[in-house]
Amino acid sequence: MRLGRPARAAIIGFALTLAAACSSGGTTTASAPPASAGGLEKTKIKIATLPAIDSAALYVAIDQGLFDKEGLEVTPQVVQSAPEAIPMLLNGEIDAMFGNYVSMFQAQDKGTLKLRILAEGSRAAPDSLSVMVLPSSPIKTPKDLAGKTINVNVLRNFQELALAQVLKANNVDPASIKYVQVTFQNIMPAWKGGQIDAAYLGEPMVTAAISTMGARKILDPASGPAAEFPISGYVSTQGWYDKNPHVAAAFQRAVHNAAKLMENNREVVSKVLPTFTQIDAATAATVTFPYFSSNDNPVRLQRVADWMLEAHWLNKAIDVKTLMSPTTSG
């Protein structure tokens, strides 16, 4: 697979993606009739979003008029990281935000905010993330990763959480891995300079590393027990939800319907990516996308909270189902 832009642009795109860098447990799909605008508590809402592939459903819903059909006018407000948006949410500057579940559950656990999940967003897809080595590396198999140094963009976040489960499934002790926080612009220098033994990459950087460096894939962090690992979603506060339940339901329907449209129509995603990310049209046409959720499933999302508790990243267990909005999309 060839990129239509240089590797530096791919690194920028990956940086933005990772900045986004979350009933009975069954799934439901989007099909219910829309609410009339007259039933909405408000018709104009602001959503803090990230310039990342994972938040594409919001932009597809805008581009395809899906919010319009629900009587909503949605204005994205771009931020560079989820923590940046949390004060905005608490101050009422925005109605909801897009962010990764690990950060959101940490904020819930600390009492920073009382969380309400409006709709699931993205899940890790095969080959959208990769632990890779340079062609000359002696690392050949997952077991060879034991005792090695791997980069993450933020310590104790979704990258590390998912990889720990996949390492265990491959008989590698996660505690043997040394994780170091490396800024995005320094990943390649650190990798080539030997400061890290293996690089933890995401699209479009995976494709760039293969095509320009001949990098080898050692492990897929979105495989085995971490298959379809939930990464990010659309959230607000419980207080906002209590005041705006019809708005929340309309928003959820539009996002679900956007994701449903995206499942078999890559072009609608490729079309919007250059409008809110630094990924150009040529790159958007080649990279591996995450899964976009057209339904909400508390069972798969519970994995995130359970793994965080297992890793001692939470002080107490979180029952994810109690944080999720009633599904009105099916």
Q: How do the helices and strands line up, and which of them pair or pack?
A:
Blueprint (H helix, E strand, L loop, with lengths): L6 H12 L25 E6 L6 H8 L2 H4 L3 E6 L3 H9 L5 E5 H10 L4 E9 L5 E5 L15 E4 L5 H12 L8 E4 L5 H6 L6 E4 L2 H9 L2 E4 L10 E8 H6 L1 H19 L2 H11 L4 H4 L6 E2 L5 H13 L20
Parallel strand pairs: 1-2, 1-3, 6-7
Antiparallel strand pairs: 3-10, 4-10, 4-11, 5-8, 5-9
Helix pairs in contact: 1-8, 2-10, 2-11
Could you give a quick summary of the protein structure above?
With 330 residues, the protein is an alpha/beta fold. Helix content is 37%, strand content 17%.
Task: Please describe what this structure looks like.
By secondary structure, the chain is α/β, with parallel strands linked by helices. It is built from 13 helices and eleven strands. The chain has a six-stranded mixed β-sheet with strand order 2-1-3-10-4-11, with helices on both faces. The chain has a three-stranded antiparallel β-sheet with strand order 8-5-9. Strands 6-7 form a two-stranded parallel ribbon. The longest helix has 19 residues. The radius of gyration is 19 Å and the shape is globular. It starts with 6 loop residues before the first helix and ends in a 20-residue tail after the last helix. The N terminus is likely disordered.
